[in-house]
């Protein structure tokens, strides 16, 4: 997925969940960089529940291979 499509997906998710885009992006970038879930949660201002919801929404939107 290219950066533009990834950003649009994260904007859609942040809007849907009513959470700040920059925090969603920060959390996702940490996960992509190889940090574990707990470290990703601790490095942003989102709650554990919000981070789980973000990952669930990403999984729903992931293109089928």
Question: How would you describe what is shown here?
Answer:
The chain has 65 residues and is mainly alpha-helical. It is 72% helix and 0% strand. The chain has four helices and no strands. Helix 1 crosses helix 4. The longest helix is centred in the N-terminal third of the chain and has 15 residues. It is globular and about 30 Å long.
What's the quick description here?
The chain is mainly alpha-helical and 65 residues long.
Q: Helix tally? A: 4
The secondary-structure element order is HHHH
Structural class: mainly alpha
From the N-terminal CA to the C-terminal CA, the straight-line distance is 12 Å
Helix content: over 70%
Overall pLDDT: 93
**Beta-sheet strand percentage?**
under 5%
Shape: globular
Largest sheet: none
Task: Describe the SSE topology.
Layout: H1 3-17, H2 21-32, H3 37-42, H4 48-61
Helix pairs in contact: 1-4
Main features:
mainly alpha, 4 helices, 65 residues, 72% helix
């Amino acid at each position: 997925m290219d950066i533009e499509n990834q950003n649009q997906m994260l904007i859609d998710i942040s809007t849907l969940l009513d959470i700040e885009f920059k925090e969603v992006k920060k959390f996702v970038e940490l996960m992509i960089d190889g940090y574990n879930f707990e470290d990703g949660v601790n490095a942003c201002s989102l709650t554990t529940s919000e981070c789980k919801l973000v990952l669930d929404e990403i999984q729903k939107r992931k293109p089928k291979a």
